[in-house]
Amino acid sequence: MKRAALLCLLLAGAARAEVVVCDVDYGGTTRRVVAAPTADPLPVRPVEFESWFLFRVVFRPAPADLAGIKLYTYGRGPDGPQLIHQASHPYPPPAAADGSFTGVQAVYEPRLNAELQYRCALADDGK
Hints:
mainly beta, 4-stranded antiparallel sheet, 1 helix, 8 strands, 10% helix, disordered N terminus
């Protein structure tokens, strides 16, 4: 019995998992942000884009009542980061025609007249 349980754990660990992959464009440069599944969204840190934007992806696939993908864009203000955009998607999300679940989204920062664009999709983690 113990051997069977250990084998199941090893096989589960070897299985590929989904990740959220976002291509984020700011200032003419596109960077890829990859978010692994998490059970606790609090420690998920945002990714910096130049000196103004912060982009955060929280991918919570379980439990079913809390499952979802949340995308946050913050702008740096004089008092620290300020949320300027937030999007919530169900998990699993429906795919758009371009294979993403967001399509291309644009976030504007009014003080600096800056724009950040992103497009996110589910992908295999490649492990």
